[in-house]
């Protein structure tokens, strides 16, 4: 076969390897130390229930699904989801990540700002330790 065919075969194999690696990447998302764990029910966007309490998404809020793809609020309306989220300066959810089963199994994870300030976070392992 010609060198061109060898190159095409190598590219196809590389592409297949990258596609195979995507699910592993999606399950090992790095969350910031400021991310809290909670349950969100998307009611009438931007209105939500956060841990059972009425709240409002921050302007420009970003919602990422389990494959780390951005979701419009209309796509998640009416759903109850376990998430990690960050808050803006006004205390409104800004970044929201819908958790995979593996991510949800990482415990403990702080549910309040006070817990996050008192506990220790290992960003490499994506784990929290209580004092």
Written overview of the protein:
This protein is of the alpha+beta class and 131 residues long. Helix content is 29%, strand content 31%. It contains four helices and nine strands; from the N terminus they run H-E-E-E-E-E-H-E-E-H-H-E-E. Strands 3-2-1-6-7-4-5 form a seven-stranded mixed β-sheet. The protein has a two-stranded antiparallel sheet with strand order 8-9. Strand 6 (80-87) and strand 7 (93-98) form a beta hairpin. The longest helix has 24 residues, at 3-26. The N and C termini lie far apart (64 Å).
Task: Quickly describe the structure.
Helix content is 29%, strand content 31%. It is of the alpha+beta class and 131 residues long.
DSSP helix fraction: 25-40%
Secondary-structure element pattern, one letter each? HEEEEEHEEHHEE
Beta-strand portion reads: 25-35%
Structural class: alpha+beta
Order of strands, widest sheet: 3-2-1-6-7-4-5
Average residue-wise pLDDT: 87
Apparent shape: globular
User: Distance between the terminal alpha carbons, to the nearest Å?
Assistant: 64 Å
Largest beta sheet, briefly? 7 strands, mixed
With helices defined by DSSP (H or I, 4 residues minimum), what is the helix count?
4
The number of E-state strands comes to 9
Low-pLDDT windows of residues: none
Radius of gyration: 19 Å
